[in-house]
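Priority: low. Protein: Zn-ribbon domain-containing OB-fold protein. Input follows.
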Amino acid sequence: MTQSGIRDGSGDTEEHGRADGLLVPVPDEDGAPFFGYAALGELRVQTCADCAEPRFPPRPCCPHCQSFESEWIRTSGRGRIWSYVVPHPPLLPAYAAQAPYNVILVELVDAPRIRLVGNLVAAADAALDSVDPARIRINAPVRAVFHQAAGGVVVVRWVLERP
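Result:
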């Protein structure tokens, strides 16, 4: 990610606005592999090659053993909703049209200390408001799906394991 971690999806920065106005991540050198694997339909987590501790967000040095060696381990793509929020009111105009939408925090089954932020949707390419917020439950099992956002970046979204 860049310092701000997001862009408008047009290849430009936030100040230029995108047709749909939604924000997309800007991969930096450390996070680029995460998005590269997502583009292949794989959810991988950076893991220390020396002590085997997974880490997210990606960074050059292991916070546990200070090693600079890492590898990207494929996960099952399964998790559980650890927390969520339904923003009120939407902070950006483009998101107002999608309200009420959700933002969830998913704890990975394969790496319980790793939590990823995303949206719970009905399908990979569904709108952000495709799941009724009343259906969201803490601990609900979810699985990763992959959505190509503007600018070619593939982002991880989540669907319920048992719809």
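The longest strand covers residues 78-85. Confidence is low (pLDDT under 50) at residues 1-19.
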